[in-house]
Amino acid sequence: MIVQRRAVTSVLAASALLLAAGCSSGGGDTPGGRSGSSSSTAPEASDSRQADGQPPPATGSVRVVRTVAADLKTPWGLAPLPGGGLLLADRDDGTITRIDDKTGKKTVLGTVPGVSAAGEGGLLGLALSPDHASDHLVYAYLTTDSDNRIVRMLYDPKKPSGEQLGAPDTVFKDIPKGMIHNGGRIAFGPDGMLYAGTGESGDRGLSQDRDSLGGKILRMTPEGEPAPGNPFGNSVVYSYGHRNVQGLAWDGRQRLFASEFGQDTWDELNAIKPGDNYGWPIAEGKSSDPTFHNPIAQWRTDEASPSGIAYAEGSIWMAGLRGERLWRIPLKGTKSSAPPQAFLTDTYGRLRTVVSAGGNKLWLTTSNTDGRGTPSKTDDRILEVEVS
Fold first, then answer.
1. Tens digits of per-residue pLDDT, 182-212?
2. Model confidence pTM above 0.85
């Protein structure tokens, strides 16, 4: 099985120790505050509807509280900081910007070197180290001239704007790249392991090839090694038969869910079981073939084209690009307990990323400047949304 990794250098480790010792709480990277997003270290666990016998109501609600920030260009990854504030990835420019979630003020941390933005590739998902409050490490999934890869960088808020990112250290590389289907979502699970959703880069055969990293969900240690307990021995492959995974989230019982782009017929939300085959390209959507793990919900591609997902209030919340809406999928265990419900349809345009803002609130980004949308004068935006 394929194992592509690079251990963190001793220089980076030493720098992390020095930075942790020298940084004060003035940078806002202190424990407390935001938690429970698909980019953070653990899901929300305070939902009173966690017991499988108590599913959420069949009908929910969504209220847009406010616009947090506007005039953003090709936003993709979004990671809430432990002490407040958001880190935002610009797909095309390859920059990471800190957004003050109270005032909307933008501070550019720096540009990630090596980003090759073309088609659907560029600087994509962001995730914070499980120990970010002390080690100040930011992980990023990016497209280069040769591959998709995961890097990590030190973030030093005490340095001037534009100089706050350390040199990237490659954690994992050689994920297939293409003009389409680069995947790109990364997240640390409640087990402290790093998960990545990849795409088959337009080469359908990669999805069923367990020796390929394309069309998979990968699970690895923070250093890029195959995680203990992975289903295929010394391999980072966790599940396969995917077309293009851009959403990862855990419910309050630490069960993993993933969204997936279909081709012409069905988009999917899947409950992920390690080692299972999710069917692409042989099956799109639900199948009668017992070889494949069927989705818990499916949509016509013009109603969804899903990217990010988050868990809140007993439901998975799924952002739709082509569908231009936010879907609510109420859960009972690893199944949908009621038909999915759509909100914000054709209101804010294409929706890319959704993460938990704690409790019953979400951060939601639009994606109208990505070359496929029709931007308004204030696009793109980050919205604060209240859900039930």
1. 999 999 999 999 999 999 999 999 999 999 9
2. yes
In contact, 27 and 158? CB cutoff 8 Å: yes
3-state secondary structure of 158: coil
Q: For the chain, how big is the Rg over CA atoms in Å?
A: 19
CA distances from 128 to 37, 51, 147, 153, 358 (A): 10, 29, 22, 10, 16
User: Residue 307 belongs to what H/E stretch?
Assistant: strand 306-312
* Among the listed residues 188, 194, 225, 220, the one whose alpha carbon sits nearest the alpha carbon of residue 82: 188
Interatomic CA distance for residues 260 and 295, integer angstroms? 10
The token duo for 102 is: 């109270």
**Is 18 a residue whose pLDDT tops 60?**
no
Residue 336's DSSP bridge partners are 331
Q: What is the set of domains in the chain, with CATH numbers? A: 10-387 (2.120.10.30)
- Residue 200, judged by CB atoms within 10 A of its CB (0-12, 13-18, 19+), counts as buried
- Distance of alpha carbon 347 from alpha carbon 54, whole angstroms: 32
In this predicted structure, the answer to whether residue 7 has a pLDDT above a threshold of 90 is no
> Which of 308, 298, 334, 306 is CA-nearest to residue 322?
306
Tell me what pLDDT residue 315 has: 98
